[in-house]
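Lab channel / #folding
Pinned by the channel admin:
"Please post every new chain as: sequence first, then the structure tokens as a reply. Keep commentary short and put observations after the output so the thread stays searchable."

First post following the new format, from NK:
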Amino acid sequence: MKKKIFGLLITIFTFGMVLNVNAVTISTDNSNHATSDSNSLLVTNTGTITVSNVKTGDVLVAYRVLNTFYNASTNVFTYEFTSDFKAFLASSSTYKNLTIEDYYALTSGDQTSGSTRTQSTLDKLVSAYTAYLKANASITGTNMTTSSTTATATVPVGAYLIIPKTTLNVYAVMVGNVIPTANGNDWTISNATIKAKVSQAGLTKAIGTIGRVDGNYSIGTEYSYFLVGTVPQFPTNATNKKYTIVDTVGNGITLSALSSIVIKDGEKTLSNTNGTFKNGANTVATATISGQKLTIEFTADYITSTTVTIEYKAKLNSNATLGDTAGNMNSAVLTYSNDPYGTGTTSTTAVNAAAFTYGIEALVYSNKDNGIKLSGVKFEIYKEAAATTKLGEMTTDGNGVARFAGLAEGTYYLKQVSTAPGYSLPRDTVPVKVKIADSVAATTEGYYLAEIAAFETGTLPLTGGIGTILYTMIGLITVVSAIMLFVLYNRKKEA
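Reply from TO:
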């Protein structure tokens, strides 16, 4: 049996394994004997475990589950579970009868024991052992040293489970082993190399259309936000698969109803019944709105792709901040499990999007040199020069200032509809043009300025432009010419 187990372990974890070509002398600990053979001593030779594709900042720990013993007189190796792993097995109704051959079958795919190795069965074992480790914090493994994208550890010979300790990412189960291997009449140490299968979670945010991080809108106009989440691939049978997005909007933003939310799992649009999103009979996500906060909690078991896309609607309201300085921000955060077999979670850095809005400020003053500011002058705001689509009204205050807030970029027209006592309305209906654009500077408060002169009654208003003056002059000339012709005609007739 010993030779059989040894034969099995010679090939255990062969994926990515590298053989050390240098012969070694087997070293043992004379104080540590195998329970099955008092002449077999614990091997103290060391080797290395190397894990590639490790993400920056992630910490991996190697836990030994098999010890290696050597009988020098018979030149035979014996393998036993570590005391910590034995205690775990004894505490588990599922794994209390697990043998070394069973462990090998789970971790390597060997079928000689009659066990069928699947990823799920291995994941279940690691899940149970991880939970046991968390409940028994005194059990320590070997912290692996990470440099760039590679984690390494020098460890005594044996079989190991590699478990993430502190990570921002989700790792598939990793197993590796360092064992003596026959090399002719000599022994070498087989070192383990593993390429980690790791998936990252992430979140991006856009406004108006995917790819944009800011936009500008009129108050009351509905627009879209987009959240695109990258979903990690949780190990099979992981017990912790949290994936939740919380988006908090400012007081200047009003969220639209849950019914307007659209969620896609990959390219598939999920059905939405009052914030419950399903793929067939499976509930994939649930959305709730509380005040300024939108929460979308996913059921990771039913996410079928690596990407989810959320589109939701909102409007700027009267509390919106004007101008380019701050905008109206909202902040989304993804919280997800980075500890699939425990309870730990982590969160992404907040992603933001800004909604800008602007205003028009009209300053009305007398055409006289004293520049008296006029109050009570009323304007209507239109989107077109023809003054057909009325957006609102504004009236000057005691400082001659009228303001209208909450406009997107664009060109607007101010039509004066009333004036101060003693002053005349413009004779034409051509409004004053105001352009809101990045190329034109606004005030620090986010207003674009329009200075408008008012004319006292009896004076010729300039409002309406040179065309009005020209037509007036032509009319006067025509009248004077007609009178002169009439006088000349009468004189000739009398003569």
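NK: Confidence is low (pLDDT under 50) at residues 1-21, 110-115, 459-472.
TO: also worth noting, The chain has four domains: 2-198, 202-355, 358-464, 466-495.
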